[in-house]
Amino acid sequence: MANGGTIFLDEIGDMPLHLQVKILHVLQNMRFERVGGNKTIIVDIRVIAATNKDLEQMIRDGTFREDLYYRLSVIPLNIPPLRERKEDIKMLMYHFLEKYNTFMNKRITSFSPAVESAYRDYDWPGNVRELENAVEYGVNMAFGDQIGMDAVPARLLKSDMGLILANDNLTLSEQMKHLEREIISNKLRKYGSSGSAKDKVAKELGLSRATLYRKLAELEIH
Length: 222
What we know:
The protein is mainly alpha-helical. It is built from 10 helices and 6 strands; from the N terminus they run βαβββαααβααβαααα. Strands 1-4 form a two-stranded parallel sheet. It has a two-stranded antiparallel sheet with strand order 2-3. A hairpin with a 6-residue loop joins β2 and β3. α4 packs across α6, α7 runs antiparallel to α8 and α8 crosses α9. The N and C termini lie far apart (54 Å). The mean pLDDT is 87.
């Protein structure tokens, strides 16, 4: 069916080894035989393969063929995870909002500033699929024309800050310490832990570099 066109092999890293041999044979020779057939079929196709797994590590583990890896990675394209391209989050939020407004016949126009901030600071281990899931949940749960914090999935709110607000036994000093740790940790997750990254963190928080380092030690942020 793909002859003369393009075939997309999604999640190629999940392909069992015995099938990897077969797909490698097709890629090398551009020909195959149907199951149970005895006629050779020649194809002319462009192959695009995708995976979210570390294929080089799988090669070292013996779960992915090295020859298939090099046959596939002629023009490799790396899409960084969402946590490394925070500037895309807001654009994607509104893209999915428009999508699910159409699906559910709703007229939600925006996210509250607190929701935009929570989405921007979250690490999104499930990447774009998780973000889409969160927006779909919000569209389902929102009653007005804006998605507020009450329509954010609980997993996004499981942070040290949420635990602080739920704990009545902490003194003001202890609460402030936890909040400072949360704020600085979020900035470090955003920029990294290199010297230049810490300079950016200090600048955004209005601190000198020396003060930031002192707080890292005081708050036991490693």
